[in-house]
TrEMBL record:
Classification via Gene3D superfamilies: Type I PLP-dependent aspartate aminotransferase-like (Major domain) (3.40.640.10)
UniProt key word Signal: no
Organism per entry: human gut metagenome
GO molecular function, one term: transaminase activity
Protein name per UniProt: Aspartate/tyrosine/aromatic aminotransferase
Amino acid sequence: YVTACREIVSRLYSDLITVLKIPFQHIRIKTILDPDDEVIVFAPFFGEYRQYAANFDAKIVIVQPNLETFQPDLADLEAKITARTKALIVNTPNNPTGVIYKPQTMEQIGAILEKKQAEFGTDIYLISDEPYRELVYDGNKEDFLTKYYRNTLVGYSFSKSLSLPGERIGYVVVPDEAA
């Protein structure tokens, strides 16, 4: 019944509009977190992510970067995922470093998340926070992370790419295949 109910509600409310992207971030986080759950972030990270988790009595788990490349330390990621892990927030290009996570890195992250979901029998969501996705240079491009992992939730804001500070206009994508 839960699956049938979810499908009916999602058809009725497939387009949801909020005043800002931030409230949707909170809605998105609230729907997947219970008290004492964990949200993983890659250091360095946008400081408000800590509040996203704290608002719902969850905790932030920090994965350190490789200090030469600023790509996430994937062994550290795999070691820190537990049965309480509900989400990984990814921000690429990264705020504050500007580092773009390589496609190979994202493929490996997707594989690690799939493996850990199966190991713990839980859903783990990759929350892709993408306000800087169009601010890439020198021939670089930013892939949509939905291509690497099915449980990816994408949030985008036009405020950065269109130089509209304070105008939190954007969108959220939840692929059909997401749990």
